[in-house]
Structures are given as structure tokens and as C-alpha cells.
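Hello,

Our lab assistant flagged a job as stuck in the queue for most of the afternoon. It eventually completed. Since we weren't sure the result was trustworthy after the delay, we are filing this so someone can double-check. Below is the sequence as submitted and the structure that was eventually returned. Let us know if re-running is recommended.
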Amino acid sequence: MLLMVKDKSIYILGIESSCDDTSAAVICNGKVLTNVVANQEIHTKYGGVVPELASRAHQQNIVPVIQQAIQQANIDKKQLSAIAFTRGPGLMGSLLVGSSFARSLSLALNIPLISVNHMQAHVLAHFIDDEKQEKPPFPFLCLTISGGHTQIVKITSYFDMEVIGETLDDAVGEAFDKSAKILGLPYPGGPFVDKYARLGNPNTFEFSKPKMADLNFSFSGLKTGILYFIQKKVKENPNFIEENLNDICASIQRTIVEILFDKLEKAVELTGIKHIAIAGGVSANSEIRETLKATEEEFGWKTYIPKFEYTTDNAGMIAIVGYLKYLENDFSNQNTRTTARLKVNEN
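-- returned structure --
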């Protein structure tokens, strides 16, 4: 049970540094006051995140990002009630930058420290107090999709989560990015595939969908199939990609979305739960959002779609988890370790 605190402003500073975005946010009683994100452009030329470069960039960005978050919230750091930070999962070097700073600041201010599971934060971003964002009731299902994860999670309460389906190899975000790389599109490629797909015919090309048991996913075979298809077509016509880019992207995106929603439909049938949310960076994809919204009328689901700023890695989602844990007096100590691997049901 959450402890209700009346007539008190609870300010939580959230710090997110799991991958290549340095972010800090301030929440007051569940409402986001600031959510500052510093992106790392340096990885673009490498076609993916370089861990060593990411951790160095975090070291450069973390102080100014946190200063901006506190200043823009128009509060003094002494007003902070607690500091929440990403414990994992993520890149170890990146996580250590954020967690080390959080530990030091909590000691300096003599306020509680709260460790946050990054994957729980993606799900619980739905509970940020925002008039433009409806909160799902318990229980609900959440399709959590990102560059590193593809999961269907059953959410019974804030911190009672069960993975009922997940990818057995590659994540959906990786499938988008690798497909984009095959087509010669910049990194990160997912948004570019989405952009060009909106201009194309999704039924132009057919790609085989993997046959996976239960509610699990697989995207490695799809990536290989796309690669062989493009290689064959380019051999026949060197200008194939350029002449058909929109239709290729639309066909790839349709296939991926169908894979996701075939499993989601099955999850609803098995659980009987019709409150459905999406979370994670790939939930920003326009066709996924449109398809989910269409299910309300087609299947009678009630759907919950996060605001764009709460889909990718951001400290707002870390801060809301910190707030919920603060209300339960669920604090961490200075010995809490960061970890590169952490399941969604682990705190």
C-alpha cells in the first residue's frame, strides 16, 4: 500500500544513464516539472552505441544536465526529498556514472537514495501525473519494446510484474535498426524506417514471419530474410533500394507490427485482460501506435499510449518510480550495486 502524504511537496530528482542518453528530471508529487535529456551524437558515425564513448560523454553531460533540471524546476537542491537513479539494466560504464553521482549527491544532501529498474520505469511512465496521459488500471498488459527488449508483461500492481512473453534472440528495436542499416539508412534507423514507411505501400513485398511457440518472439530470422531479399534484388537491379525505398520500409514495418500484435492478441485471449499499454523506445513508432488504437474498436480493448517524451530513455520515468518507492519508504543504501542485467520483476 502506498503511503498518502498530505500537504507536503515531495520532490524527486531522477537520473538516467543506462545507455547513450544522459537525463535528469524533477518530479513533484508525481508531476514532471523538468525532464532534460542530452543526446550523444558521436555514435551516429559508428552505426551503433560505443560503450566507452558513451560513459565518457555521460561524465561530461551529467553535471550540466542535473543543474538544468533543478534550475528549470525553480527549486533549490535542498528541497529535494530523494534521488532516484537507474540501477540497471544497461551499459555498465554508463550506469556507473549516473549511480556514482546519485550516491554522492544523496550523501551531500543527506536525503534518501532510490534505485530504479530501467524496465520497470518504462512501464510505470504511464503513471506520471499528466492530464494528457490516462493511467491504466490494474491488472493490465504492457508490450515493452525497445532496442534491447521485446516483452509482454502482466502488471498486477506497481511492483508486481510478470513477463509472459519475450524475444528469444533479437529485440524489435534491433530488427528495425539492422533493417535500416541494410538499406543504407543512418543510425538509429528505426525512426527512418517509420518515416519512409508512411509514404509506401505496406503490401508491396512479403517477408516470412517466424513461427514461435506460446507468447515468445524471434526477430533474427526476419533480419536474415530481409538481408537476403535485398541482396538478391540489388544484384538484379543496382537501383532497387533507391527506387523502392518507401515500399520496402512499409513492408518491413507491416511485418514487424503484425508479429507484435499476433502475440498481443494471443496474450489477451490467454489472460482475459483487455487493458493494454505500450512502453519503450519503439512504442514511438507511428504504425504501432495507430494499430494499437485501432484495436479499441476492433477487439474492445482499452489502450494506453505514453507521450513521446516518455517513450525513449528519459529521467522522468526514473523519477516517477522513485516517487512511488518513496511513498512506500522503499529506499536503497550506498552499497546497492548497478547491474548490466536486470529482469523486469527484479528491484
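-- support follow-up --
The delay was a queue issue, not a problem with the job. The result is valid. The longest helix spans residues 240-271. The mean pLDDT is 93.
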